[in-house]
Amino acid sequence: MKKKILLSINAGSSSVKVSVYEVEYGQAPTQIAEAQVSGLTSPPASLKYVRDGRTVVKSKEVEDQVDNQRDAFSLLLETLIDDGDLPQIKSKEDVGIVCHRIVHGGDYTKPQLISNETYQHLENLNDLAPLHNANSLGIVQLCIRALPTATNVACFDSQFHSTIPEHIRTYPINPDIAKSNHLRKYGFHGISYAFITRSAAEFLGKKPEELNLIALHLGSGASACAIKAGKSWDTSMGLTPVAGLPGATRSGSVDPSLVFHYASDVGKLSPASTKDLHISRAEEILNKKSGWKALTGTTDFGKITSAASSPGHPDHKAMKLAFDLFVDRICGFIGSYYVSLRGQVDALVFAGGIGEKSAQLRAAVVDQISCLGFEIDGEFNDKNELEKVVEEVGKATGGRDRPRVLVVQTDEQFEMARACAEDAEFW
Prior knowledge:
Layout: E1 4-11, E2 15-23, E3 30-38, E4 46-51, E5 54-61, H1 69-82, E6 95-102, E7 112-113, H2 116-124, H3 133-146, E8 151-156, H4 166-169, H5 175-180, H6 190-204, E9 213-218, E10 222-228, E11 231-235, H7 258-262, H8 281-288, H9 291-296, H10 301-308, H11 316-340, E12 347-351, H12 352-357, H13 359-368, H14 378-381, E13 390-392, E14 404-408, H15 412-421
Parallel strand pairs: 1-6, 6-8, 9-12, 12-14
Antiparallel strand pairs: 1-2, 2-3, 3-4, 4-5, 7-8, 9-10, 10-11, 13-14
Keywords: ATP-binding, Kinase, Magnesium, Metal-binding, Nucleotide-binding, Transferase
Pfam family, one: Acetate_kinase
Binding site for ATP: 17, 217-221
């Protein structure tokens, strides 16, 4: 089979990223370019473009009007096609495969070729993830029209967690209602956790099926995952991504009755709803008006960390509260998963923007769980830049039975491209 050009699309709430790969069936993808439009929720939007590892556009304010994810993707596609120094994409017909990150895949256990039937099924799942799936499906629609010769593939954040045992994924509610309404723990960030599992296994010299991990994907959306024998055993997010750890604007797990005491109109539709996107006030509060932004006024965890360690900072008290709260919630999941894995843990893994960049958070978490045998190495933990995909920041002294502490630079676009390259159905 000949090589194909693959676009790996990751649409977030405020950004769209496209990674471009040359792929050959059964072989590891080779990245040739990456482009991103960010700032969709705080205009003006900006464009970043990297080709062959060199920055072509660092951060350029977008002149054209970019109102949503579809506009952003159109701009990114135009940028790639118009680049004379990217000969692999001279026209839309040069794109062979397009893979899309879809947050909620329901009961799908692997990537799916997007057909009319698949698309309708994903649309029906929008009510489970109204703030996430709709943006991605808008780009899917655009790609079907704009790239008619390409194969479209859906990769799901929830598919990695299809191995979670029934007694863990089941909610103690009426089973008939739960089944008919698809109410159970699904879990998310699964594409990231799949990448983390393979990368950590390679670093530790183990097969994935021999590996037990507690992995943390910490960014504006944050979650934890217990990985047993290379497969998801439990995860902090549930029916939707709002459960579990708090994030930049998400509450994380709270008393289910809290929202009814928060406001009297929580059951009504939010003004942000559209004909395609039905969002209740409760969903808007828990997803968009909570988290550390509600506590501190900022979604920038770097600012929170800096102010939390500076007693003289005017916002020190609020920032320290948010920092300490986040550390406490993370440690709670680590302790729970350590017991669930019966103490058989090869490594604790930090990933995601905060997990990779915040040495102070890593140090605070590992200090609090030191009773479980984890230990941080200050010299390695404090390095400003990670040089490899996987780096060790824990002390490996005291024998190899001590659980390791790793940082993984996760790559969801690569993981999606790899999955497509290995599946004959997409060729």
